[in-house]
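User: Structure tokens for both sequences below?

Assistant:
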Amino acid sequence: MEINIYLKRNKRIPPLLLFLTILNIGGCAYKEVSLSHQKTERQVSCVGFYLDWHVSDQTVDYINMHCAKDLIEQGYQLQDVTLLSVDFTVPEPPKGKQWNQSLAAEHYESGLISDREYGNVLGALEVAYYDKLEQAKVLKKTGAIDQARYEQLVEQAETELTGS
């Protein structure tokens, strides 16, 4: 059986790349955190997904709690209160540096930060990245910036996220 999946410009994905992508999905996490509001009887969810062999669960927990924090301030209550006891502190980066995925991976692989800390760093980086993308979209939509500046902001956000 041959699988043909096409990318932009009709480029075929090589079978090896497809196999590695499917294999890599084994290191992903998807979690949902439900919250409810007593006064309005409204229920909402924060849904996180992250792909990483080592700490995808911790990263998704961080992302979901970031979402839930805003809702908790609006009067919502977590249905799974065990997350409230988790330490979501992001460790300080090395002096004179800022966290990015590359630097965090180096520190994790060297044993300088724990699984939880690594997951928290990656979660914080993801949250900051998507916040920057959203801000850039709003600026572009309102006409405050042009396409070229928008692309610069997106590229800058990606560089800050990955470290390269």
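Moving on to the next sequence.
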Amino acid sequence: MTSTTSSRLRCLPGTGSCLLALLWLVSVGLWAQDGSADDDALTLDGDVTLPDNLWPPANIVIPAPSIAVATPEPLPPPPMESLTIMLDWFLSPQHAPLLAAKARELYQAQGLDVTLKPPADPSLPAKLLAAGEVDAALARQPLLHLRDHDDDRLIRIATLMATPLNAVIVTGNSQPDDIDALATLPYGYATREGAELIVPLLVPGSVRQTDGYSAPLNVHYGSERHLQESNIQVMADGFYHSLPAQLATDGINASVIPYTELGLPVHDGLILMVNAKTLKERKDTWQRLTIALENAARWIADDPARAWKTLIEAYPVLDNSVNKAAWPSIVRRMALRPAAVDTRRYRRMETFLQERGITDMRLPTRALAVDPHTL
């Protein structure tokens, strides 16, 4: 019967072959149960009785998969990369792009969790960065040159302020007609470049070698206090957008001498540095960070009044008359393309340092500053 049956199955025509085969198997099963069926009695025209349990009952409900009736659990957000950036000074409007990026969650949009830390002393940021204690740090361009000639291997990845925010601040009722007249006055400084670059430009070596010469005083964060108390009369590296205004509230007149009048080349006023060891291995991080800073700078430039309101709401310590008055000047000096490098500025500063005998050789620009998006 098996061979005959197989022959019949193979010869079934049309698209109903499978159904006929199924019906045949059912009938064979019934025949095998009662033993009364006959091989020859099985025909295509015969009646076939199906078992009661061949099809599921009509009242059975098959539940739908849970994914079809319930909202799936949201996917966990990707992990955020933590970064610590050491500021160059206590919180100030000059840090606006960094602060705005945090207040508007622009870092988070780039997958970054950024912590901003003011230093306990202005000399610490570059030192901590060189030691690998922080991920990035702020400084002025001249300090970067001095540190790299000390083999610290720091490198600029962004510019926050495109022109210097520091200048020589001189107290007195009138600005001296001759800069050389400042040589005999008591000096103060707060940064390394103030001591090693600015003071030597103002005080000739012949004066510094006299017996009556007083070495400049490191005032750290106390420039205003020392000028008020007449411990110094000249601040080599004061913030000219805020210090004269602060002194004016105390009834002290102050004048400003821009660095360009001393022969110091125009340079980036505030830069973001990283350790060169991390430059390529974390290039994606630095690229995302500079994107956040660029978005913040553009947002500030689009509506400075709205940006100022946002900043003082997020950082109430900034809310005072001196900072408010300085805000328009800060916005004008803000770099709108933080990652972009003005290579000419870095070459000129290297030339200046060598010609003044401060350094022995010139470092290539690529060892000092890069656009992380070109790595």
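User: Anything stand out in the second?

Assistant: Confidence is low (pLDDT under 50) at residues 1-12.
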